[in-house]
Amino acid sequence: MEIPLAVYGAGGAGRELRDLAMQMDVFAGREREIIFVDDLLNGPLFEESRLYSFTKAQELFSPPDLRFVIGLGEPEERASLAEKVLAAGYGLENLIHPSARPPDSARLGRGVALYPGVFLACDVCLEDNVLLMASVAVSHDAYVGAHSVCAAGAKIAGHCLVGRRCFLGMNCAVRENTSIGDGGVIGMGAVVLENVGENMLVTGNPGRAKPKPAGFRVFGRE
Ligand SMILES: CC(C)(COP(=O)(O)OP(=O)(O)OC[C@H]1O[C@@H](n2cnc3c(N)ncnc32)[C@H](O)[C@@H]1OP(=O)(O)O)[C@@H](O)C(=O)NCCC(=O)NCCS
């Protein structure tokens, strides 16, 4: 039995990641427990998986005995949980669906999750804790910064630079050689034709950018 995997966050993205991890374990013929860690829910079980707060998980599992994936879709929150997990000495695991098959030239950081049907072309780089949902395509030489999330069907063309803690909405498209600054949010279906500065929100076709309001969250206000 391998050491357990903890999915930090038991909301929608966390449950999707748990399912991805379970599928991968079946493909790999691997047996291990997958637990949820969530500081807002009370255990002992959530959807048949053990559920602990981070503090409780630390009491029960020393760092070599537990690995984490971050189960949140909000980039700022992904960043803070990943930093907390790493600071406590735990490792972040990559979850890569077999259909994603990154080429040898791809460089992947820690805690990267690739859903079914993700396409990575040659020489892409995905930094730590990047989450690419189903059917995302990242073309040759493109770069995606740490903690960024691409929702299903997002397309990033060749030589693009996507910053840290960005969110690219479902079915958006980013033209080749275009950069998106840190904290950028690209709305569903937006077509990004020009460079986007830091903390900008882009919608429409052609994409129009405006500053992201203070405290903006992709998944609703706090
Ligand atoms: C772009 C986005 C972040 C804006 O969020 P928001 O500011 O809370 O949006 P609101 O619903 O308040 O809409 C604000 C305005 O933007 C428009 N708008 C919102 N999303 C848009 C989009 N994707 N494309 C074009 N216009 C959009 C709204 O019609 C509204 O226009 P109005 O002011 O003229 O009435 C959000 O709509 C979006 O696309 N999120 C990504 C969703 C996604 O990919 N989910 C995947 C989950 S895994």
Summarize the helices and strands and which ones pair or pack.
Layout: E1 5-8, H1 12-28, E2 34-37, E3 45-46, E4 49-52, H2 54-60, E5 67-70, H3 75-87, E6 91-92, E7 95-96, E8 107-108, E9 113-114, E10 119-120, E11 125-126, E12 131-132, E13 137-138, E14 143-144, E15 149-150, E16 155-156, E17 161-162, E18 167-168, E19 173-174, E20 179-180, E21 185-186, E22 191-192, E23 200-203, E24 208-211
Parallel strand pairs: 1-2, 1-5, 2-4, 5-6, 7-9, 8-11, 9-12, 10-13, 11-14, 12-15, 13-16, 14-17, 15-18, 16-19, 17-20, 18-21, 19-22, 21-23
Antiparallel strand pairs: 3-4, 23-24
Bound molecules: coenzyme A (COA).
Coenzyme A binds at residues 73, 151, 169-170, 185, 187-190, 203-204, 218.
CATH class of the largest domain: Mainly Beta
CA-atom Rg in angstroms? 17 Å
Any idea of the CATH topology of the largest domain?
UDP N-Acetylglucosamine Acyltransferase, domain 1
Tertiary shape: globular
Spell out the CATH superfamily of the largest domain.
Hexapeptide repeat proteins
Q: The biggest beta sheet, please? A: 8 strands, mixed
- The SSE string, one letter per element, is EHEEEHEHEEEEEEEEEEEEEEEEEEE
Distance between the termini: 40 Å
Bound molecules: coenzyme A
* CATH architecture grouping of the largest domain: 3 Solenoid
Please list the strands of the largest sheet in the order they lie side by side: 7-9-12-15-18-21-23-24
Structure annotation, total helices: 3
Helix content: 10-25%
Q: In the residues, how many domains can be counted?
A: 2
The count of β-strands is 24
What's the quaternary structure here?
single chain
Q: What share of the residues does DSSP label as strand, in percent?
A: 25-35%
Alpha-beta content class: alpha/beta
